[in-house]
Design a protein that fits this description.
The protein is of the alpha/beta class and 221 residues long. It contains 11 helices and 6 strands. Strands 1-3-2-4-6-5 form a 6-stranded mixed beta sheet, with helices on both faces.
Length: 221
């Protein structure tokens, strides 16, 4: 129950702030407790309940559904994107639009795996309005939830999809075009950045680079 009490406390603090009250060091307080809230969850189900009730940033005000993530909890490979889009917000499931269909095809045709064999999540759990890039505040408030998911799943390989995912997971500001395909030590496994499927829909010629990246992943598993 401790995690729900902490979440409720933070919700009240933000509510008071919206009414004009001021309190000290609000961002640091929220970030610190957010990590505690995530780590107080002992399994994926309890973490999902916390995420479903989260209202610590403005994305919660416009969402229809949180998009927690889904897949094999014992997956060797975990994909991390940027955030939900319109179809994901409607359904509560990650990567179900055109970009998701392309991701599924990539998983099946290059890794020779089924979509349910991997785990898929995003940096933020709620859709940013008009599919904009999440702000640093939004991403950093959601990141402890994602890191806790990674702790539970213990993937051998994390594939970060696009610049936003790579930046918040590694704190590296390098362009995705420069680091794409590199193998980076990450926790007890490795991380490999590649292009986001939505980028491939706009730039089909880049599919060959992702294909090469997935062949590298396949050789590792």
């Amino acid at each position: 129950m401790k995690n729900f009490k902490q979440l409720k406390l933070l919700q009240n603090l933000y509510r008071y702030k919206s009414l004009g009250y001021q309190y000290f060091d609000d961002i640091k307080l929220a970030d610190s407790n957010q990590e505690e809230i995530a780590h107080d969850s002992n399994d994926m189900d309890s973490l999902k309940r916390v995420v479903n009730n989260c209202s610590l940033c403005d994305l919660s005000k416009s969402r229809k559904h949180t998009v927690f993530g889904e897949g094999n909890l014992d997956a060797k490979i975990m994909f991390v994107g940027e955030g939900p889009g319109a179809m994901e917000d409607e359904s509560g499931h990650p990567f179900v639009g055109k970009a998701g269909q392309l991701l599924t095809k990539i998983i099946e045709t290059t890794l020779y795996l089924k979509r349910e064999d991997v785990y898929i999540a995003n940096i933020v759990k709620c859709r940013p309005p008009n599919n904009r890039v999440p702000t640093p505040q939004e991403a950093n408030k959601c990141l402890p939830f994602l890191l806790r998911q990674i702790e539970f799943i213990k993937p051998k390989i994390i594939i970060s999809l696009g610049a936003t995912s790579y930046k918040y997971l590694t704190k590296d500001q390098s362009p995705i075009s420069r680091v794409r395909g590199e193998i980076i030590n990450f926790g007890d496994g490795v991380l490999m950045p590649t292009f986001h499927p939505s980028y491939l829909l706009r730039n089909p010629s880049a599919k060959k680079f992702v294909f090469a990246d997935m062949l590298k992943v396949r050789s590792m598993i």
